[in-house]
# Entry
Amino acid sequence: MSKKVELDQEECIGCESCVELCPEVFGFAPEVGKAYVLEGADGDSACVEEAATACPVACISVG
# Structure
């Protein structure tokens, strides 16, 4: 079973670091200036933890 990845859009500042580091899991919605978790994304992807660690506001949780 894949890990669940969550991104708190209220906290997201739209820096897109997660999208740059892990485009297979995170997308960016320019109309709201926020990142989001892609539908059906694999939470076990190697880049997820790196993206969560790189988030400047720590709004990504993996578990």
The first strand starts at residue 5 and ends at 7.
